[in-house]
Amino acid sequence: MTTPPSPPKASFLGIPCELRLLIYDKVVHLDFELCIERASPTSTSGYKTLGERRDVACELPINRLALVCRSVAKEIRSRPRTLPSSQRVACIELRARALFLYGIWLRRLPCRVKQITILDVEVQLSIPKAPLTLNFLQHQRQWVKNKVADLGASMLHLLHPEEGILKDATEIRDVRVHLAITTPNASTLSEETFNRFKRDIQKQAEQELVALIKPKLGERRLLLMWH
Questions:
Q1: Torsion angle of C-alpha atoms 192, 194, 196, 197, degrees rounded to 10
Q2: Are 107 and 33 spatial neighbours (Cβ–Cβ below 8 Å)?
């Protein structure tokens, strides 16, 4: 009795080409993490612009996939080089500790730096815990005021047209800042008090950020989004 032939082994190149091309399109937009700046937001010593850094290309998910084999690399290179403008969205995360913003991380880069049309900037500020005294809200507002100033400095460090890390990204038309402000004391406040505090902080942050950043953006739009 003859043994039936074993089924062919599954492989990436064994799936239809159309499906592989769809996979490449998804991989281009995958998130990843690459620290591009750890220094103080106002420090410019020794950094390179994003377009000058060779490690960025090495970390891109689509380029890492191209290392699988020559056939995959050839298919990836054959894809259209230019994405629609609505898909050329890069993402930067400004990471914060209790007292200061300490790093700039690249999270998504689906195209060349000079082709970016939309920049998402994510930042979450966690207000340090403070005693629940009569001046609690004043203490929190002052802390946020200081952090908004740090955030403004970091944004200019990114977007300054002559010295910024993203100065090569000349096609950016929208800068979307995603802000989340949390406080460990939120659960001990009444809902009405916390909502009023949050509205005040958002209004204050918007006014100060617009005043700090908008004059440096030129024709670019600044959009603030709260989460």
A1: 160
A2: yes
- At 133 the three-state DSSP class reads coil
Stretch 24-31: mean pLDDT:
91
pTM of the predicted structure, to 2 decimals: 0.79
What ranges do the domains of the chain cover? 35-49+84-226
Find all residues with CB under 8 Å of 115, minimum gap 6, and list them.
Answer: 82, 83, 88, 171
Q: What percent of the chain has pLDDT over 90?
A: 17
* DSSP per-residue codes, 11-64: -GGGS-HHHHHHHHHHHHT----EEEE-S-TT--TT---GGG-HHHHHH-HHHH
Return the minimum-mean-pLDDT range out of 52-66, 90-104, 105-119.
90-104
24 in Cβ contact with 64 (< 8 Å): no
CA distance 226 to 221: 16
Q: How far is CA 222 from CA 29, 58, 119, 190, 196, in A?
A: 23, 30, 10, 33, 25
What tens digit of pLDDT does each residue of 129-152 get?
A: 655 554 666 666 677 677 777 777
With contact defined as beta carbons under 8 Å apart, do 188 and 137 qualify? no
Two structure tokens written together for 12: 């990436």
Query: Per the structure block, which two tokens stand in for 70?
Result: 């020559």
Give the tokens for residue 38.
Answer: 């750890």
The pLDDT value recorded for residue 186 is 57
Q: Which residue has the tokens 């929208």?
A: 174
